[in-house]
Amino acid sequence: MKLVWRFDFDPQAPKVDIHRYHQNRRESPSDIFGMPVFHENRVYVAGGGDLWWGKNDSWVTCIDATQTGEITMTGEVWKYRLGKHVFATPVVHHGLLFIGDCEGGFHCVDSRTGEGLWTHAASGDFWASPFVADGKVYAGTRRGQFLVFEASREKRLLTELELRSPISATCTAANGVLYLTTMSRLYALAEEAQAR
Q1: C-alpha to C-alpha distance for 7 and 79, rounded to whole angstroms
Q2: Is 189 exposed, middle or buried, given 0-12, 13-18 or 19+ CB atoms closer than 10 A?
Q3: What number of other Cβ atoms are within 10 A of residue 1's Cβ?
Q4: Distance from CA of residue 73 to its chain's centroid?
Q5: Has residue 193 got a pLDDT over 70?
Q6: Is 192 helix (H, G, I), strand (E, B) or coil?
Q7: What is the pLDDT of residues 85-102, one digit of tens each?
Q8: CA-CA-CA-CA dihedral for 151, 156, 162, 166, to nearest 10
Q9: Quick check: helix, strand or coil at residue 126?
């Protein structure tokens, strides 16, 4: 394998002796739990301080993937601040980026500019990544709240369900059915006519 480019997601973070920063909520290394997302020659990555022992700081970074070599100083296109921590993978759809954080904030960001377009305060933190299908964005929280938004630049909450069990996994869809799992149940959701 040949290294094409390298980008330090958090260049100011400590790189050695990291265990001495255990439970330091102001300064610590950063981690990335979600997957990087590649779209139109850009890479979108969410990360920051660890939920259990790291700093209270997280963000999404957009990286120019057309560059080569060490691009930490030149490759950042934009950075968007999130709540204290983030586990989710962002999703990019028609010029919009969606992601939830561990403070219960669900964010819609312009994927080209990094401008925050809207935020929704949910009841519970987002560990699962959002899912986009049929012009809608689906997201669930650790408090069992399942939200459906219109995938648009304006905030339009279409549905809100209280499932009373933590949602840690991303939902998915197949053949017109949305599959959603909580810590206690698996749901298959479809329009009434199709369910029959």
Answers
A1: 13
A2: middle
A3: 3
A4: 24
A5: no
A6: helix
A7: 999 999 999 999 999 999
A8: 40
A9: coil
Distance from the Cα of residue 80 to its chain's centroid: 12
Rg (CA), the chain: 18
Q: Dihedral through CA 94, CA 156, CA 57, CA 85, nearest 10?
A: -100
Residue-range definition of the domain harbouring residue 133:
5-195
- Whichever domain contains 122, its CATH number is 2.130.10.10
Task: Give the total number of structural domains in the chain.
Answer: 1
What values do phi and psi take at 194, rounded to 5? -75, -35
Contacts of residue 62, Cβ cutoff 8 Å, sequence gap at least 6: 42, 43, 44, 76, 77, 78, 79, 111, 114
Residues shown for the chain: 196
DSSP structural state of residue 16? S
Nearest to 79 by CA among 160, 10, 16: 10
What does the block give as tokens for 129?
């990544």
When the pLDDT of each residue in the chain is averaged and rounded to a whole number, the result is 96
